[in-house]
Write a structure and sequence with these properties.
- GO terms for molecular function: kinase activity.
- Residues 200-313 form the Histidine kinase/HSP90-like ATPase domain.
- Pfam families: HATPase_c_2, MEDS.
- InterPro entries: Anti-sigma-factor_SerPK, HATPase_C_sf, HATPase_dom, MEDS_domain, RsbA-like_anti_sig.
- By secondary structure, this protein is α/β, with parallel strands linked by helices.
- The protein has 2 domains: 6-175, Rossmann fold; 188-327, Heat Shock Protein 90 (2-Layer Sandwich), CATH 3.30.565.10.
- The chain is built from 10 helices and 14 strands.
- Strands 3-2-4-5-1-6-7 form a 7-stranded mixed beta sheet, with helices on both faces. Strands 8-9-10-12-11 form a 5-stranded antiparallel beta sheet. It has a two-stranded antiparallel ribbon with strand order 13-14.
- Strand 4, helix 5 (106-122) and strand 5 (129-135) form a beta-alpha-beta unit.
- Helix 4 (71-87) packs parallel to helix 5 and helix 5 packs antiparallel against helix 7 (168-175).
- The radius of gyration is 21 Å and the shape is elongated.
């Protein structure tokens, strides 16, 4: 694969601006024999098909709501596709608009923005090409973040270096710049001595089953909290404390599981932000914490002089009300 990886933002104000950048990107890929994908909704697909004409047959159209289902999982799947396509001697070329995830809850939006930054590291050596159209109608914070997470900006068929682009690790650290809000006073709390995984799992299971968390997600939580607790015992410092509670902010209720210890992590590379790669492909990464990100809806990590906190969030199905692990109002 001779091409280098490219990741560009296409800022646009209307349909003409959008097509002026998207069409050359897609047509160039089709002419070069790339695997070309357009991640979009039905209306945008119809617009692109009509504008592309016969060349639309060379483009795979993917429903954006399905594609943007989970930040870490989408990154992992896309990277796997890029590697597999490169192995076959072709280039993966993706047009993906952030309109679906830009309207989701703030913590999820933040993780999608982090993914936009970290894929600049994860995709090195794949030869893939990714274009992200950002409409001026998106929230201002989303548009501003797009200029910091893409090395290039596209206007029509021209691309130029983006002067606002930030180093991905620096951008990720910025995502974690705010301290975590304190746990609620009525959170369940358990101080852990020697690791006893049987009783830990029993405790987590008992609490989680007082919420509407699906059984499949409970199994994911048990694997994730086991990994985080094991990491705290190996690399942290006592006391190690496990806390659990539920949150119901608007339409995004969540079960939260937190592991805190007095140790301090040495660098951001331990955060599990980059998918592990096959030997020799470059970007590296720790599988344990990366797996935790795959298993949970959101993973928040803070480390400093006061210790390290890992907060796992799993989305809960909407119910009339949730309060500290119990259904209320007749639930």
């Amino acid at each position: 694969m001779s091409e280098s990886f490219t990741h560009c933002v296409l800022p646009y104000d209307g349909v003409d601006d959008f097509l002026g950048g998207a069409l050359p990107f897609l047509r160039d890929g089709a002419e070069a024999g790339d695997r070309v994908m357009a991640v979009c909704g039905v209306a945008r697909e119809m617009l692109l098909r009509e504008a592309l004409g016969p060349a639309a047959g060379d483009v795979e159209f993917v429903e954006s709501a399905t594609w943007y289902s989970h930040p870490a999982r989408t990154l992992a799947d896309c990277l796997s596709d890029a590697d597999a396509t490169a192995w076959r001697g072709r280039r993966l070329r993706i047009l993906g608009e952030p309109v679906v995830w830009a309207s989701r809850p703030p913590l999820e939006v933040l993780e999608w923005q982090r993914v936009e930054a970290m894929l600049n590291i994860a995709f090195r050596g794949t030869g893939a090409a990714i274009m992200c159209p950002y409409s001026s109608s998106l929230p201002a914070g989303v548009v501003a973040a797009g200029r910091r997470t893409h090395p290039e900006t596209v206007r029509g068929a021209r691309s130029m270096a983006n002067p606002l682009y930030m180093d991905p690790w620096a951008y990720s650290a910025r995502c974690d710049g705010e301290p975590l809000p304190p746990p609620p006073e009525d959170a369940d709390e358990l101080e852990l001595g020697l690791p006893d995984l049987y009783w830990l799992r029993a405790y987590v299971t008992d609490y989680a089953r007082r919420t509407p968390l699906p059984e499949e997600d409970l199994q994911r939580l048990l694997v994730a909290v086991t990994e985080v607790l094991t990491n705290a015992h190996r690399h942290g410092a006592p006391p190690i404390t496990l806390r659990m509670w539920t949150e119901a902010p608007g339409a995004d209720p969540a079960l939260v599981c937190e592991v805190a210890d007095r140790g301090r992590w040495a660098s951001g590379s331990a955060y599990g932000l980059v998918p592990p790669r096959p030997s020799g492909t470059g970007s590296g990464g720790r599988f344990g914490l990366w797996a935790v990100r795959l298993l949970c809806t959101i993973v928040q990590i803070r480390t400093g002089p006061g210790g390290t906190t890992v907060r796992l969030r799993l989305r809960l199905p909407a119910v009339p009300a949730l309060l500290n692990g119990e259904r209320v109002n007749g639930g």
